[in-house]
Amino acid sequence: MILIALGSNQCGPWGSPEETVARALATLDSGGFRLVRASRLLTSAPFGRLNQPPFVNAAARIETHLPPEGLMRRLHAIEHSAGRKRIQRWGPRSLDLDLVDYHGLIRAWPRRPVLPHPGIAARIFVLKPIAEIAPGWKHPVTRLSAAQMLRRLDPHGEGAEI
Predict the structure, then answer these.
(1) Which listed residue (61, 84, 101, 123) is catalytic?
(2) What is the C-alpha separation between 26 and 84, in angstroms, rounded?
(3) Any catalytic annotation for residue 61?
(4) N- or C-end of the chain: fewer Cβ atoms within 10 A?
(5) What integer is the mean pLDDT of 46-56?
(6) 27 pLDDT higher than 80
(7) Given this model, what pLDDT does residue 35 score?
(8) Which one is catalytic: 93, 112, 152, 154?
(9) Mean pLDDT over residues 45-67, rounded?
(10) The pLDDT of residue 159
């Protein structure tokens, strides 16, 4: 199973954050991708840098023939098309696409991409959409489901749904 997390909190060439995430989901169903399932859009509080607008988040389950490195290059190209500029870590962005899991592959630094995504267990805005679209998914390292990881988090903390 390939899982992608999507987020936006800044208008860009694709429109509002909601329009941008919707267009990114459509893009993940074309050009060598097949969108298997997409979550509903979720509005969440910022994570990391708190003095910025709320995020619109979603998750997608996709299929592709691309290996992880090729998939990451394509995800970065989609972000660039949506106006993403990598200026500030955890800062505002028109589109963020994170490769969360790639068929359960486990790879540590310095391999790129690191898999599974190292921050997912602490991110409500990633776990909640994944629990919606892939309830049977288990974290490749901890073997916990998204719902189990969610129960460990403060439902009102950073990145919580608003």
Answers:
(1) 84
(2) 17
(3) no
(4) C
(5) 86
(6) yes
(7) 98
(8) 93
(9) 92
(10) 82
